């Protein structure tokens, strides 16, 4: 059974409400129908008044919960709450009245107010514009150093690797983490992988060096981050610094890293920076025809997940289901 099928089964066990703020996008409209018709979650679609058209009216006639923001009874409540949350940062009431009409902000306020368990956006909005309101309003979870992202990658079977499901991080948010931040990304990604896949994480801290085969500041960062994780969580299966082949190919690991704790069987890959992570996941997605679910956020107080602007309808359904499962842990 594919990973996403397992996640959908889990989502159906405890139905959550997830908001999709980009209701004017036809992909979002079709995904909303699937989510409702297959009873995966309670879906709420947001639109601005100017975007109401025959397609939106058809969504309403199909029984989809569509909120026209300008007509919402919650508009004044959310405006006031947004102002209270952001006034110390210089936001005026007039600015709050304007900003709340942005569907992304309205959707995040729904999550903040408990009207939805999570939000999925990004089909027509940049990652920064999706995550900025979430960081401003929802903040980080308790005892979390920073918010980062991961992709769940599922390779088509059969594969000669020990797993066909991987977590790649960070590929969407933290540009150039320092050693402490990189260690936090590894810890959060291992937890996310465990929670979402029900598989034991085996973490590889990736580099262009394997156990001292090369030297440099970038290598030292990965070494330091790996040591930090091992000190905090001595039972976690993690190793680094490792080149990719030594991380995922047992035969190569025996040659390059015979003492490695993960022995070439990594399923969680931590990239040293955003540039390498973003390139890496897209290479695997396009060259290996892998499914790439994300970027999924980790470390927020409540789940808000991003979509690639190149996403398709199935991607929206999948990320919404993942968000619903994440929301279950808060319900």
Helices, strands, pairings?
Elements: H1 3-13, E1 17-20, H2 26-37, E2 42-47, H3 54-61, E3 65-68, H4 75-86, H5 93-99, H6 103-112, E4 118-121, H7 127-137, E5 148-154, E6 165-169, H8 179-197, E7 202-206, H9 217-232, E8 237-242, H10 244-248, H11 250-256, E9 268-270, H12 274-287, E10 291-298, E11 304-306, H13 313-328
Parallel strand pairs: 1-2, 1-4, 2-3, 4-11, 6-9, 7-8, 7-9
Antiparallel strand pairs: 5-6, 5-10
Helix pairs in contact: 1-13, 2-13, 4-5, 6-7, 8-9
Report what the structure shows:
The chain is an alpha/beta fold. The protein has 2 domains: 3-139 and 300-328, Rossmann fold; 148-287, Rossmann fold (3-Layer(aba) Sandwich). It is built from 13 helices and 11 strands. The protein has helices spanning 3-13, 26-37, 54-61, 75-86, 93-99, 103-112, 127-137, 179-197, 217-232, 244-248, 250-256, 274-287, 313-328, and strands spanning 17-20, 42-47, 65-68, 118-121, 148-154, 165-169, 202-206, 237-242, 268-270, 291-298, 304-306. Strand 7 (202-206), helix 9 (217-232) and strand 8 (237-242) form a beta-alpha-beta unit. Helix 1 (3-13) crosses helix 13, helix 4 packs across helix 5 and helix 8 crosses helix 9 (217-232). The protein starts with a helix and ends with a helix. 47% of the residues are buried.
């Amino acid at each position: 059974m594919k990973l996403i099928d397992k996640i959908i089964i889990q989502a159906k066990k405890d139905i959550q409400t997830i908001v999709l703020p980009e209701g004017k996008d036809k992909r979002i409209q079709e995904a909303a129908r699937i989510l409702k018709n297959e009873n995966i979650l309670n879906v709420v679609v947001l639109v601005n008044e100017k975007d109401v058209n025959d397609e939106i009216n058809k969504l309403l006639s199909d029984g989809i919960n569509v909120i026209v923001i300008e007509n919402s009874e919650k508009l004044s409540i959310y405006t006031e709450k947004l102002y209270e949350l952001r006034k110390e940062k210089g936001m005026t009431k007039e600015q709050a009245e304007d900003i709340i009409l942005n569907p992304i902000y309205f959707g995040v306020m729904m999550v903040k107010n408990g009207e939805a368990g999570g939000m999925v956006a990004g089909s027509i909005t940049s990652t920064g514009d999706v995550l900025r309101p979430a960081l401003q309003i929802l903040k980080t979870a308790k005892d979390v150093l920073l918010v980062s992202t991961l992709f769940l990658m599922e390779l088509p079977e059969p594969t000669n690797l020990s797993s066909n499901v991987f977590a790649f991080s960070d590929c969407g948010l933290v540009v150039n983490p320092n050693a402490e931040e990189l260690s936090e990304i590894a810890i959060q990604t291992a937890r996310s992988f465990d929670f979402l896949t029900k598989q034991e994480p085996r973490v590889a801290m990736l580099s262009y060096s394997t156990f001292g085969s090369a030297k440099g500041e970038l290598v030292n960062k990965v070494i330091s981050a790996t040591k930090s994780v091992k000190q905090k969580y001595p039972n976690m299966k993690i190793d680094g610094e490792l080149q990719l082949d030594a991380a995922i190919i047992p035969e190569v690991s025996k040659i390059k890293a015979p003492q490695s704790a993960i022995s070439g069987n990594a399923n969680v890959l931590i990239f040293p920076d955003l540039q390498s992570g973003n390139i890496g996941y897209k290479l695997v997605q396009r060259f290996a025809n892998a499914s790439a679910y994300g970027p999924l956020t980790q470390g927020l107080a409540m789940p808000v997940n991003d979509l690639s602007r190149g996403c398709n309808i199935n991607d929206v359904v999948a990320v919404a289901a993942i968000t619903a499962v994440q929301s279950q842990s808060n319900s």
